[in-house]
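Action item from last meeting closed. Structure (114 res):
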C-alpha cells in the first residue's frame, strides 16, 4: 500500500501493481498510510514478494498464480488471529473468513435470529 501510494503521487493516477482501492473492504479506521501498514504487518504476503528489484513483467511472473484475500487469518505457529491481506493456500497462514463472516476478534459471529 505504501508503494502504491508513493507511485500514485509521483507518477500520476495510473493503475499500478499493488494499487488497492479498499473503500468498504477494510474495517472502519483503516484510512491512513499508518493504518494500512498496520493492516499488512501480520500478513504472510511479504514472504512471497521478490527480495530484489524486478521489472514489472518479472514481478508479475513471480507472483502469478498467487491469490490474495482480505479477511481474518490464523497463524498456525502461535494460533493468533489477525485481520490482514494474506496469500491463500499457505498451510501456516489459514484463511478463516471475511470481514462480515467473523466478529472483531476473528471469531465466528453468533446467529442471533433464533
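Sequence:
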Amino acid at each position: 500500500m505504501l508503494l502504491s501510494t508513493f507511485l500514485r503521487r509521483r507518477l500520476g493516477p495510473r493503475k499500478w501493481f499493488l494499487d488497492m482501492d479498499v473503500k468498504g473492504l477494510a474495517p472502519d479506521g483503516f484510512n491512513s498510510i499508518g493504518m494500512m501498514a498496520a493492516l499488512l504487518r501480520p500478513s504472510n504476503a511479504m514472504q512471497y514478494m521478490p527480495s530484489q528489484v524486478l521489472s514489472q513483467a518479472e514481478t508479475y511472473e513471480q507472483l502469478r498464480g498467487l491469490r490474495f484475500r482480505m479477511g481474518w487469518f490464523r497463524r498456525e505457529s502461535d494460533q493468533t488471529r489477525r485481520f490482514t491481506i494474506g496469500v491463500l493456500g499457505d498451510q501456516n497462514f489459514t484463511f478463516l473468513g471475511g470481514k462480515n463472516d467473523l466478529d472483531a476478534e476473528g471469531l465466528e459471529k453468533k446467529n442471533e435470529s433464533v
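Note appended to the action item: The two ends are 41 Å apart (CA to CA).
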